[in-house]
Amino acid sequence: MPAPQCASCNKARAALRRPRSGQALCGACFCATFEAEVLHTVVAGRLLPPGAVVAVGASGGKDSTVLAHVLRELAPRLDISLHLVAVDEGIGGYRDAALAAVRRQAARWELPLTVVAYADLFGGWTMDAVARSTAGSGRSRSCCTFCGVLRRRALEEGARLVGATHVVTGHNADDMAETVLMNFLRGDAGRLARGGGLGSPGEGGALPRCRPLQLASQKEVVLYAHFRRLDYFSEECVYAPEAFRGHARDLLKMLEAARPSAVLDLVHSAERLALAPAARPPPPGACSRCGALASRALCQACALLDGLNRGRPRLAIGKGRRGLDEEGPPREPQLSRPPTSQPVPDF
């Protein structure tokens, strides 16, 4: 049976049916529609004002690659400038190949690239060192918890290093739906309350962050990368199989099979969620050590590093954080900016 005509241009043969709407489109029209929808998300949400210097979190994976490519296409219309910021977490046999993909993208698209490393920022700690430290404590599954917090801080530091006014990340609708599910399953009211919207305004001195792909499904992100023939790194992180997120992802796939709108329903439910006054988290303050936004005396990054440096990584996770106040004053600050971090040459 021949493919139907594209419903948009009515000239070319359709190359796909959009997963949600079923609309038949050719590759060119699909890509143009995808870019227009991202543009609408950015403009309607007032995410990136004219003149913004935008740090794009670049991991080399499909989401950040698509995000960087789309924003590069839209940059003249949005009147923004882009700077790729990649984070070297120190994961042997994985991160080097991903960073190589980022460097190829930066060279091909003529975008400046800066790489910041955990080892420089966090007193020599890398993710491989964290994994070794947590392996004997029964916390080997918590690597993604450590990495998520430290990566967020590293991206913030990298963005400040290049003079960015805003930070964007490539989280898509599936990512956000998984996060909502995880927070419900853990009963984490605080994160549920902060999880709505398309980003954060940058309170407490932090840079404003946003997720322009938040309403785009993972399937369409992959399709866009395919039709634009984008070069990206597709291997899964070596620590990902043990993460709790994998269970939420499996559950989400089952829900989506029964109800195709489940992904966006979860995303929008987080936007509309209203907590009872008694369940609302207290207003955030400043970390007593580094000054970053924090809901307790120490921000998450400082708490994690404190537990690692004491040889008790479980202190930094969940209820274990209560022990931080029971073991005397904290050590000297562990967060530091790399002394000679320079933009990585485009090659």
UniProtKB/TrEMBL annotation:
Keywords assigned: ATP-binding, Cytoplasm, Nucleotide-binding, RNA-binding, Transferase, tRNA processing, tRNA-binding
GO cellular component terms, semicolon-separated: cytosolic tRNA wobble base thiouridylase complex; mitochondrion
Main location: cytoplasm
EC number(s) on file: 2.7.7.-
GO biological process, one term: tRNA wobble position uridine thiolation
Positions of the Cytoplasmic tRNA 2-thiolation protein 1 C-terminal domain: 285-315
Family annotation (Gene3D superfamilies): HUPs (3.40.50.620)
Binding residues for ATP: 57-59, 63, 87, 170, 175
The protein's enzyme class: transferase
Pfam families referenced in this protein's UniProt entry, alphabetically: ATP_bind_3, zn-ribbon_14
Domain tRNA(Ile)-lysidine/2-thiocytidine synthase N-terminal: 54-237
Subcellular localization, as worded in the UniProt entry: Cytoplasm
Region (Disordered) residue spans: 316-347
A single MF term (Gene Ontology): tRNA binding
Function per UniProt: Plays a central role in 2-thiolation of mcm(5)S(2)U at tRNA wobble positions of tRNA(Lys), tRNA(Glu) and tRNA(Gln). Directly binds tRNAs and probably acts by catalyzing adenylation of tRNAs, an intermediate required for 2-thiolation. It is unclear whether it acts as a sulfurtransferase that transfers sulfur from thiocarboxylated URM1 onto the uridine of tRNAs at wobble position.
Assembly mode: Component of a complex at least composed of URM1, CTU2/NCS2 and CTU1/ATPBD3. May form a heterodimer with CTU2/NCS2.
Family statement: Belongs to the TtcA family. CTU1/NCS6/ATPBD3 subfamily.
Name under which the protein is recorded: Cytoplasmic tRNA 2-thiolation protein 1
Top-level taxonomy: Eukaryota, Metazoa, Chordata, Craniata, Vertebrata
